[in-house]
# Entry
Amino acid sequence: MVKIAFDAMGGDLGYQEMIKGAVLAGGNDLEVILVGEENLISTELKKYNDEEKSHISIYHASQIIEMDEEPATAYKAKRDASIIVATRLVKEGKADVVISAGSTGAQMTAGIFVLGRIKNINRPAIATYYPTPNGVKILLDAGSTPDCDKDNLHQFAVMASVFGKSYLKMQNPSVGLLNIGSEDKKGSILYKETFPLLKEDNRINFYGNVEGRDIPKGIVDIVVCDGFVGNVVLKLMEGITTVFVKQIKDNIKEKFIYKIGGLLSKGAFDKIKSQMDYSEYGGAPLLGLKGISMISHGSSDARTMKNAILAGKRAVESGFNKDLIKYFEETNIVNND
Amino acid sequence: MVKIAFDAMGGDLGYQEMIKGAVLAGGNDLEVILVGEENLISTELKKYNDEEKSHISIYHASQIIEMDEEPATAYKAKRDASIIVATRLVKEGKADVVISAGSTGAQMTAGIFVLGRIKNINRPAIATYYPTPNGVKILLDAGSTPDCDKDNLHQFAVMASVFGKSYLKMQNPSVGLLNIGSEDKKGSILYKETFPLLKEDNRINFYGNVEGRDIPKGIVDIVVCDGFVGNVVLKLMEGITTVFVKQIKDNIKEKFIYKIGGLLSKGAFDKIKSQMDYSEYGGAPLLGLKGISMISHGSSDARTMKNAILAGKRAVESGFNKDLIKYFEETNIVNND
# Structure
């Protein structure tokens, strides 16, 4: 049975919301270990009956890393922080995956120092997946490594290819390098340097450069970029959908006839909300670590955290990280200097 | 009367479309100088009657810089290219603004070498403006300078503040630094270095860091970022709108009742298309040059080019570039090393 180490203290909405999410994930053939302040958690759990929380246990951690703390400093100062303890449970084999909606930097730092990096991987990457008219696609890095070099981007491309096959069952996934033009020699220095590495690597199905407009269209299965650009892209996609939905609702309110029309076509409109919900996928794995660590949004509510737990379970069952570890242990051509 | 030097040979849709755009701009108290291959242009102009083209003249240029040419090389090799000749007309005072839908790199190179940079400006930036629920906002750089340093970003912030006041009549425009988190110390090295420069500069109304989701919401009047990120952002905003409109149309086709509803609420839906049309503003000025150069999309059609010409006229009349030149000649604190 899959065991989830769940950071009960992460997330903007407070531990009550996190615990509610963990409770909602029950009945899905999994165990959730709530990691955090034992007194707070056990008091909160009294709200739920025995059956609702039969899949839940508590593992005490006395500290919390806040969102605004510098990750490396916090890692040194707070060894008993919930995210570090939860990650340690994965390292020690007491859990199969760690999930948190807390500080991404702290989760990544814990991942690197506690779990360790996969051989031949210099930096981890957050792999997000999102819906497009061409099916679910992957974008990485979504914010784990804001300053990348060409080897990082190259490694991200290879990691995502393995991940896409193993977890999302993609067949020979196409890889696009995010850029400011489709021509081969476009871009900043970093992207110009990365292009030939991807082009010459026959382990990946390289499509070439893709532009911003190609991301939501789903032109390629995997979009590779640095963590700064990827984070901006992901949050922009979320933000624009919010604006779109609000604007159209406001417009419909303007005339009675629009309201009637809006009611009749409500089904078509509701469908678009899920077709373009770039935040609904719950958890994004941190690729490149010797253990599975899944990142959730700081703003996640209980429903989203429930989905994140289910996504964590699927991630464990897919065996993608074993595939990644094996793949990179057997390869030695990912550093180009 | 405002004189427009118009690159008749730029744009993906061919010179016929460009010329049509120039013709459509007639009757607005302006002159358009079509720059390009004289024979082609004069033959094409025969399609139009004298009144339609009374505002149009031709200035011969024998060469064209193609989209895939390396700008600096092309600039050296093709001194009689339409974009270079058109830019020269501005330098020589024969035109007030140059407009092109051709290679952005070539237009920028011509701008830097023919017009020259404004004092204390190291690199130009493309300033785009786009609609939000909070009014029209500015984003720069949209692709002119893919590799920026902190001084570039700092200068962009100051330039856009002057431009926003002068051209868009913004009152004390707020400036946000695009970043991967709202906290002061977030970001890649470049953005961490830039933050204190903006914070300490009392010539700008600095809001702090903004995230991707804040762009379409219009949280700040001016979003500052490097040309790589800005280009991705702009094209992503365009692309997502296209996907949204197509998906909702497809959804509405699925059921008869949705079609009825869609017809009744068509007005509300049509409105959203212009509310979120991130490409409709026509031309984006290249800030930082001693003359006005406005960039249009490669894919622009005649209607868009007409709008670009009208935007160019407004840009000249606003006097924003004289304001910029004056402002930067009188300042000397924009280089921080």
Summary: Residues 1-121+288-321+328-337 of chain A form a domain with the Isopropylmalate Dehydrogenase fold (CATH 3.40.718.10). The mean pLDDT of chain A is 92. Chain A touches chain B through 66 residues (CB under 8 Å).
